């Protein structure tokens, strides 16, 4: 989770937005991964590997709704 926050801060988000978005993405990655593999024995590296898929899904959702902030 700290790595995600750091990446969001480096991307220019303020600290609150970085924390909120990072927590959301971390949770969503866990849910996506849990649907694929089950929730027992998940590793942090597996959550990290799932993040690009979560970010892309979020980006696609915002593109469909017309929100430009995730482009």
Account of the protein in words:
This protein has helices at 2-10, 15-37, 44-65. The chain has 71 residues and is mainly α. The radius of gyration is 13 Å and the shape is flat.
Order of helical and strand elements: HHH
Gyration radius from CA atoms, angstroms: 13 Å
> β content, as a range?
under 5%
Low-pLDDT segments: none
Largest sheet: none
Could you estimate the helical fraction of the residues in percent? over 70%
User: Could you give the count of β-strands?
Assistant: 0
Q: What is the multimeric organization of the chains shown?
A: single chain
Overall structural class, as computed from helix and strand content, comes to mainly alpha
Please report the distance between the alpha carbons of the first and last residues.
Answer: 23 Å
Give the overall silhouette: flat
Helix count equals 3
Whole-number mean pLDDT: 87
List its traits.
single chain, 71 residues, mainly alpha, 3 helices
Tell me briefly what this model is.
By secondary structure, the protein is mainly alpha-helical. It has helices spanning 2-10, 15-37, 44-65. Helix 2 (15-37) crosses helix 3.
């Amino acid at each position: 989770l700290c790595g995600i926050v750091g990446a969001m801060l480096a991307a220019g988000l303020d600290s609150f937005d970085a924390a909120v978005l990072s927590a959301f993405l971390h949770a969503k990655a866990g849910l996506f991964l849990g649907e694929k593999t089950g929730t027992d024995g998940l590793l942090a590296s597996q959550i990290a590997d799932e993040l690009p898929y979560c970010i892309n899904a979020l980006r696609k959702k915002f593109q469909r709704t017309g929100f430009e902030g995730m482009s």
